[in-house]
Amino acid sequence: MTWFFVNAGQQAGPISDIQLDEYILGGKVLPETLIWREGMESWLPCKEARPAVAFNARPTALALADPLARNETCVEVVCSECGGLQAKENAIKHGDLWICAACKPVHVQKIKEGVAAGRPAHALDYAGIGARAAAKFLDILIIGLPAVFLIGAIIAVVAPAIAKNRASPEGFIIIMVAAIAAMGFAMMFFQVWCLSKWGATPGKRIMRLRVVTTDGGSISWGRAIGRLLGEWVNGLIPFWIGYLIAAFDNERRTVHDHIAGTRVIKV
């Protein structure tokens, strides 16, 4: 996990969890210092994002901190739309978010359209077609091939039994169909579970990609299921057009990304 923080009016980082704790305990990051990591909706004061560490900081360390830097961290805010640092008096607050004057019209329009806001736009690094294709190929190798071998093994075991019992093959056919259906369900469940737990299937994790919501948050079980169903719809579109449109989309979205309201980003 990597963190960014406001230092003397500038965005600093990334730093690790351990480094952040050292900065907090050493007084370099104050309780009021704004910090942010991937997965957070907006920048938050350290005392809210890391309260357990912030309130254990040594009083002597806080007393030695640069007063000028402390003032700057208190008056500086980060615009949730453009990610820029702004003077607090030149920004407006909407809920837990700060919006600079230049981004106010965009933010208001997003609210009207029901689009989630709260994460700096520059924080999302969308994955390209090449990386996503490589992740899909790895998923086929990791998930698809073992399933094919198991289905082949089931057929190899059940088919001779059907041939030997031609008078009443129905029972063996039902067993074979049920086993294949169970295998298919297990594959789908595994993918949905991976997406809801980690935001990525095995192939995407290897390629360091993650599926997120519009504002960069984790996806739910329902959205993961919707994305899987959307990928089936995508597969019905000829010539891989449903995937290729990502090359012309500014957020690199495929058809199933549009259906589920997801994005694929680099991590």
Describe this structure in words.
It is a single chain. Helix content is 52%, strand content 15%. It has 12 helices and 10 strands. Helix 7 (129-164) runs antiparallel to helix 8 and helix 8 (170-198) packs across helix 10 (221-236). The protein is elongated.
- Give the beta-strand count: 10
Shape: elongated
Terminal Cα separation, in Å?
10 Å
Spans of 5+ residues with little confidence (pLDDT < 50)? 58-74, 116-122
Strand content: 15-25%
Q: Give the biggest sheet.
A: 4 strands, antiparallel
Percentage of residues assigned to helices? 40-55%
Order of helices and strands: EEHEEHHHHEEEEHHHHEHHHE
Spatial ordering of strands, largest sheet: 2-1-3-4
Count of all domains:
2
Mean pLDDT over the full residue set:
78
